[in-house]
Amino acid sequence: MNILDFQRKKQSNEKITMVTCYDYSSAKLLADSDVDCLLVGDSLAMTMHGFEDTLSATMEMMVLHTAAVKRGVGEQFIVADLPFLSYRKSLAHSVEAAQQLMQAGAHAVKLEGAAGNLETIRHFIESGIPVMGHLGLTPQYVHALGGYRVQGRTDIAAEKLLTDAKALEAAGCFAVVLECIPAALAKKITEALAIPTIGIGAGTATNGQVLVYQDLLGMNKNFKPKFVKVFLDGCHAIKEAINQYCTDVKKAEFPAHEHTYDH
Ligand code: KIV
After folding, report:
1. Theoretical Cys-Cys bridge with 24: which of 68, 115, 118, 261, CB 3.0 to 4.6 Å?
2. 179 included as an active-site residue
């Protein structure tokens, strides 16, 4: 998958599949899967580091995890998130942040929101850094939004999201994530844009979908928002395997003869 495939897939009506990935061993697993694109999301602050929100993601974390994913990836396209405020201080600071992610192995960066980002996006694109936009429920704005809530529910808010999406496209973004917005609005935006939309909690009309790896694998039994489908009972499967290991050790059934060196 390369950047041209995003446009091609939209034109040929083929869905784009994206999952988050934060580490080498998951990237190795995903390398053998059908998934098109890996997102080193700033959600890693929560899933991998146990923070309450994505505001705690740092450049150091993003670079470390992007480099680990790069070492395990297959043919997938890697997008890395620019963390909270790393692209809001100055153009030079933003370029420095994007450079670090690209040099760690990302093929593109993602940033949240349109207002105040358009000049930065244009500069990135002119500098050879592909940019994925992110609109709707933008988690880096959680405090400004008053919590994790569906966006674009009023006519004014919906119109603003459509305007923002068009502005991101005009600035040069190659794709845009639409997070937690009504399905009808996601459809309208998707039809209005030439670039693909990738939805999470935005219905089926978007040109692709993204989910957090741990959520789709059922690794977090206390987190089950409406938009998540759990494709594996990972918590149960992993706990069963660990408990079986403990039982086998206690009964001296592991290690068995085949796991033992005779001389
Ligand atoms: O960080 C992340 O996981 C994301 C996705 C939810 C789109 O930005």
Report:
1. 68
2. yes
